[in-house]
């Protein structure tokens, strides 16, 4: 893959175009009369009851909300006056979010006594998977899906090199039921100035597992799932997809490389191909589960050299528990983080196995 084509939006934000071979990007000047960027959009506040940072980003109240298709800000904007993507067409594009939860450079100071807060430094980017407004990731051809993976990989490496970024999180929210307000196929990339609670918890569990058993937790979990076999959805020489033994969500699938790597950056060319293919396979099974496309969240868990127990993997999850019902995170889940599953992981795995 060649390096992305870089440009600037009207308010100075970065935009990067990733292109398939023989299809060069076609950016045009962004001529929108955008207001100047506020250098500090958000604030971090420390919750002493949990030991976690909370992002306060009031500017996001003004973000674009369910526009009609002909006003979609993620569709190509060939005039340079209508879109966040001023271009005649594009394959994959990444740009800084106009309404970011985190922005600016800088790290966190140690937490003192009393109420602790800090500037909401970090980076929030939007990644558009295609210029096709009505498409989806599952509908991409394999080379195009591989290009998205390359874009994730590029942004992970570049963001981790920036001062103050502790974790890079690539993810997709798909479906209005999940809370999506722009239906154009896209995801997001966050550069956090701290380690997120979920990641910190998993790494703690992995360190404890190493002390007790002398092995990597994620490697052992994958080995147990393969040995059991009942929840395996798809498996190649390079990757394995399975419903986890203790799945929390009505539909939940994890994708692991068969060898230990901490992030997309360390995958070789064959593994990148294999990952894109298996990822498409799982998403296409999702879309065949029910009469309407499955709403889902896709979360890429990546780690750095400073987190030696971290094993790269993807967690896909959906709140749809049947063709007509959703799983709402109510009292037990939202207030106590105690998940109650309405279906067995084995029944979900069996259904997804049938959809091969």
UniProtKB/TrEMBL annotation:
This is Galactose-1-phosphate uridylyltransferase. Residues 206-355 form the Galactose-1-phosphate uridyl transferase C-terminal domain. The active site is at residue 186. One of its GO terms (cellular component) is cytoplasm. It catalyses: alpha-D-galactose 1-phosphate + UDP-alpha-D-glucose = alpha-D-glucose 1-phosphate + UDP-alpha-D-galactose. GO terms for molecular function: UDP-glucose:hexose-1-phosphate uridylyltransferase activity; zinc ion binding. One of its GO terms (biological process) is galactose catabolic process via UDP-galactose, Leloir pathway. Pathway: Carbohydrate metabolism; galactose metabolism. Belongs to the galactose-1-phosphate uridylyltransferase type 1 family. Zn(2+) binds at residues 72, 75, 133, 184. InterPro entries: GalP_UDPtransf1, GalP_UDPtransf1_His-AS, GalP_Utransf_C, GalP_Utransf_N, HIT-like_sf. Residues 38-195 form the Galactose-1-phosphate uridyl transferase N-terminal domain. It comes from Mycobacterium innocens. Its EC number is 2.7.7.12. Residues 29-45 have a biased composition (Basic and acidic residues).
């Amino acid at each position: 893959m060649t390096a992305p084509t870089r440009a600037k939006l009207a308010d100075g934000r970065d935009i990067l175009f990733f292109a398939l071979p023989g299809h060069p990007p076609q950016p045009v000047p962004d001529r929108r009369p955008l207001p100047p960027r506020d250098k500090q959009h958000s604030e971090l506040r420390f919750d002493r009851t949990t030991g976690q940072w909370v992002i306060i980003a009031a500017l996001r109240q003004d973000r674009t909300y369910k526009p009609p298709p002909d006003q979609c800000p993620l569709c190509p904007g060939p005039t340079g006056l209508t879109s966040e993507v001023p271009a005649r067409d594009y394959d994959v594009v990444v740009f800084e979010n106009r309404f970011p939860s985190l922005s600016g450079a800088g790290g966190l100071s140690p937490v003192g006594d009393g109420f602790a807060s800090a500037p909401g430094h970090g980076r929030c980017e939007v990644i558009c998977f295609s210029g096709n407004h009505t498409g989806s990731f599952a509908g991409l051809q394999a080379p195009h899906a591989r290009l998205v993976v390359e874009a994730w990989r590029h942004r992970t490496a570049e963001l981790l090199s920036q001062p103050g970024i502790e974790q890079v999180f690539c993810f997709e929210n798909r479906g209005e039921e999940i809370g999506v307000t722009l239906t154009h196929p896209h995801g997001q990339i966050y550069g956090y100035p701290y380690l997120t609670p979920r990641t910190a918890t998993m790494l703690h569990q992995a360190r404890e597992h190493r002390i007790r058993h002398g092995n990597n937790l994620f490697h052992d979990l994958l080995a147990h799932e393969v040995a059991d076999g009942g929840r395996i959805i798809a498996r190649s020489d390079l990757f394995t997809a399975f419903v986890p033994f203790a799945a929390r969500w009505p539909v939940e699938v994890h994708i692991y490389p068969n060898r230990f790597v901490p992030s997309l950056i360390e995958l070789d060319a064959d593994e990148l191909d294999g990952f894109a293919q298996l990822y498409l396979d799982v998403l296409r099974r999702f879309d065949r589960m029910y009469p309407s496309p499955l709403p889902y969240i896709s979360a890429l868990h990546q780690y750095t050299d400073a987190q030696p127990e971290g094993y790269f993997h993807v967690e896909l999850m959906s709140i749809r528990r049947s063709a007509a019902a959703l799983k709402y995170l109510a009292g037990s889940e939202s207030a106590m983080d105690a998940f109650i599953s309405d279906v067995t992981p084995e029944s979900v795995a069996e259904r997804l196995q049938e959809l091969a």
